Amino acid sequence: ASAIKRGLSSSASATPRMLNGRTLAPTVNHASNAGMKILAVLYKGGEAAKQEPRLLGTVENQLGIRSWLESQGHEYIVTDDKEGPNSVFQQHIKDAEVLITTPFHPGYLTRELIDKAKNLKVCVTAGVGSDHIDLDAAVERNIQVLEVTGSNVTSVAEHVMMNILLLVRNFVPAHEMIQRGDWQVSDIARNAFDLEGKVVGTLGAGRIGYRVLERLQPFNPKELLYYDYNPLPADAAAKVGARRVEDLKDFVSQCDIVTVNAPLHEGTKGLINADLLKHFKKGAYLVNTARGAICNTEDVAAALKSGQLNGYAGDVWNVQPAPKDHPWRYMKNPLGGGNGMTPHYSGTTLDAQARYAAGTKQILENYFQGKAQEPANIIVGVGKYESKSYGQR
Ligand code: NAD
């Protein structure tokens, strides 16, 4: 296990490795890692990626690491083709040693695929959020799951602030009105409010949730609340003036605005459903930039339609890319507004891409060199969860 932890193939000293049909001499030093197959599932950037090289998370720009990897003799396969047994992802996963994925175009590494991935040792998430990997199966197989923790948390917190403001202030219908050539202030103002004086709560008060609380404070909310099984340190909670509520129904029933900032795991999947939505204040707003599947798709659409929710905004979907007929594309509140949905991009600003590309390279470098990984980046270490964010175990 320690050899795996250090990034060396556990069989490096005994079994010859193959590169392009050639047998490489078995060695125990770091050179034994030459010729690894590294598979990356990224999103297609099209024309934009050709024009904008800073779109590093795309298939075209390949996280900016191709020549660096190839100069060390590694094979680097990059694709956005991820669905079905004949996809490039599912074919190459069978013998890849390292898998790089991004939450923006998730290559779902299921237990079934892990069973086929006989050579897989490390999964790197270029970004934050590794729910697209079956983490329990990774634990069982001693596959490490590493993230570029913190790389885009400010990007997301800013997006949450934008989502809260655009819902509360009824921005989207106002903008659509202007583009239609109309001007009827009362149609917008009848459902526009101030953020000041509202109760705002975050479900999950980790890196993003806490940054949201920090950014909310200057708006003079009535109160800031949080719900999280990992309580904030007392001084951190006091600094933002946040009060912990331990019961989820009690928590949502006190909030005018709920923002979801917890990872997707078995304890959060479908957590916000018809049963819980009944306990929200009538006309509350819900912002979810964490993961689409934390909310039940149909139940949220119904709550918005009935006015139980006055608004829903976010950038994450239960299926990505979201199908054309996904209800969250078109759902509206009874006054025709309240939808602030976008494609998944809050954590992939150009600033964030620079950080997660650099972080991915550093993780790979550590792996090649047999150096310890940054503890905060380890979601699953060798044979066990290292992160406390993926449920109480
Ligand atoms: P983090 O690990 O710092 O914090 C997550 C917090 O959620 C932890 O404090 C954890 O205890 C809490 N939590 C877990 N399960 C919970 C539950 N059942 N109820 C209440 N709280 C719970 O993670 P982070 O950096 O803040 O990121 C959070 C999530 O945001 C990521 O896992 C990812 O899914 C999502 N994210 C989205 C984007 C985007 O582009 N939209 C980008 C980055 C991260």
Describe this entry's structure for a reader.
This protein has 393 residues and is an alpha/beta fold. The protein has helices at 2-5, 46-51, 66-71, 88-92, 111-116, 135-140, 153-168, 171-180, 185-189, 207-216, 234-240, 248-254, 274-277, 297-306, 327-330, 350-369, and strands spanning 17-19, 22-24, 37-41, 75-79, 98-101, 122-125, 144-147, 199-203, 223-227, 242-244, 257-260, 284-288, 309-314, 339-341, 378-381, 384-385. Strands 4-3-5-6-7-15-16 form a seven-stranded mixed beta sheet. The longest helix has 20 residues, at 350-369. It is globular. Mean pLDDT is 92; it is low at 1-32. Bound molecules: nicotinamide-adenine-dinucleotide (NAD). Nicotinamide-adenine-dinucleotide binds at residues 127-129, 152-153, 156, 203-209, 227-230, 261-264, 267-268, 289-291, 315-316, 344, 346-347, 389, 391.
Short overview:
With 393 residues, this protein is α/β, with parallel strands linked by helices.
Strand order of the biggest β-sheet: 4-3-5-6-7-15-16
Global structural class? alpha/beta
Mean pLDDT: 92
Shape assignment: globular
Largest sheet: 7 strands, mixed
Radius of gyration: 23 Å
> Which residues form runs of ≥5 with pLDDT under 50?
1-32
Question: Strand share of the residues?
Answer: 15-25%
Count of helical stretches = 16
Bound molecules: nicotinamide-adenine-dinucleotide
How would you describe the oligomerization state of the chains in this entry?
single chain
Ends apart, CA distance between termini:
22 Å
The beta-strand count equals: 16
Residues in helix, %: 25-40%
